[in-house]
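dumping this here so i dont lose it
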């Protein structure tokens, strides 16, 4: 027990800003106890900033709500996920660390434009989500976390994900969904160039210091779009349960299932 205390003390000394944020959250009441689906332990969730989507963190694993929602859905809907063939495109954050550690047949991929598809580069397979080299029907699950708002040809991406899934397999993913009905297309690719229909907006990207361009702000029509371009049948799950650290903006997990011939 006292060893845990010493370890915690060292962590606080090494991360003074993080510790100050934790102290402030506890003092101001912006924290609560609960169970974290990512580190699978009793924990405390702290609101380090008002934007809960990125700053309502588990003090143990530093996960954020959408990562806990994803692991919660996997555990709830796919309890054998550790035995599945999983492809995760563009992994990042606490949930990806757990998937890689606990799933025996987990394959991660990133996309580098100058590396051949299917080739392992810096220990990670290079794949273009719009045209991957995975064999037809070879995967049980495809996972993406906040990726599909950045893909220039999402119709091709959803179709290719469907191609790689076995019948009954699912694409499980997070993506910001806006409450309005219709998707807003912010940029398109035309003749190899990006045509901006809205002012450029970028999100952080772990392998690109310039960030990732937001191509689409998905609306409630997303399940129809997926069905139209891939045949996958989608349900959208929403969450609010502070005892599981699930609260905040754009907190949805989508499950798109490959249905078999009737
Ligand atoms: Zn945790």
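and the seq i came up w/
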């Amino acid at each position: 027990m006292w060893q845990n205390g010493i370890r915690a003390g060292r962590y606080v000394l090494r991360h003074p800003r993080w510790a100050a944020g934790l102290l402030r959250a506890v003092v101001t009441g912006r924290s609560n106890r609960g169970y974290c689906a990512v580190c699978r332990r009793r924990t405390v969730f702290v609101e380090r900033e008002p934007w809960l989507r990125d700053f309502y963190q588990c003090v143990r694993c530093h996960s954020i709500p959408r990562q806990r929602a994803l692991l919660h859905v996997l555990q709830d809907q796919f309890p054998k996920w550790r035995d599945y063939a999983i492809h995760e495109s563009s992994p990042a954050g606490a949930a990806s660390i757990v998937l890689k550690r606990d799933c025996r047949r987990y394959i991660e991929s990133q996309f580098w434009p100058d590396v051949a598809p299917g080739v392992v580069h810096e220990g990670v397979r290079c794949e273009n989500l719009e045209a991957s080299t995975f064999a037809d029907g070879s995967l049980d699950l495809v996972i993406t976390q906040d990726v599909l708002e950045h893909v220039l040809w999402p119709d091709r991406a959803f179709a290719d994900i469907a191609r790689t899934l076995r019948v009954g397999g699912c694409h499980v993913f997070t993506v910001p969904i806006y409450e309005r009905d219709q998707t807003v297309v912010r940029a398109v690719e035309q003749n190899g160039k990006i045509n901006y229909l809205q002012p450029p907006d970028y999100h952080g990207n772990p392998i690109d210091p310039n960030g990732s361009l937001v191509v689409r702000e998905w609306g409630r029509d997303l399940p129809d779009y997926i069905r139209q371009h891939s045949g996958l049948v989608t349900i959208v799950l929403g969450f609010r349960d502070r005892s599981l650290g699930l609260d905040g903006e754009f907190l949805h997990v989508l499950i798109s299932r490959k249905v078999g011939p009737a």
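The radius of gyration is 19 Å.
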